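In pairs, describe these two lines:
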Amino acid sequence: MMIPSGSGQALATLPIMVPVGELIGLTRQTTILAFQIGDGVTNLFNPSLGGLIAMLSLCRIPLERWFRFVFPIAGLILLIAWVALLFSVMIHWGPA
């Protein structure tokens, strides 16, 4: 089941993600960054997101055409975001 709301996703996943992140040695900030990357990128192609579907409908863009356009861009964004996430893990980003 997909949860379109970012705050709803946070409510459902962060109570699990934060303790698991701390268990494997990640700071809370890095765990939250990982969540935000996932939430932000999936908003580009989540078909249950009302705003996305409404804008595509208003512009008369079929969902399949949008997917063909956005998946390569989402892949590039994910690659850059994963490098930033890896960097945050390496420097133990968090409170001093």
